[in-house]
Structure prediction request, 122 residues.
Amino acid sequence: MVTAVTNLGRSGLYDWVVQRVTAVIMLAWFICVGGFILANPDMDYQQWRGFFDHTAMRVFSVAAILSIAMHAWIGLWCVVTDYLTPRLLGPSANLLRGLASAFCAVTLFTYVVWGIQIVWGA
Prediction:
């Protein structure tokens, strides 16, 4: 049996709420960036850089990066626990599920660190 130890929240309802909130944050970020692109059709690198040099946009971008990671983690956890089961894979399912979860966690952590370095880098 899969326990709630490996998921992000304390319960399915908590994860559902986290998924909805992170989806709204991601949508708001994409609308903000998309609106900026549409409002500046002849944009050059300096304008793009200036847009992301504002502290508010950097904080918003980090919130979007964290939202993507949390949203992905919940979705991947659901897929891994639904499909990597002993019924489908036999006794090796627990090991495969653990390895898949670890791979997803390391990958998402790497993306978050890399994204923060890009947003706050020189």
Observations:
- The chain has a mean pLDDT of 91.
- Helices lie at 12-39, 45-53, 55-83, 86-89, 93-120.
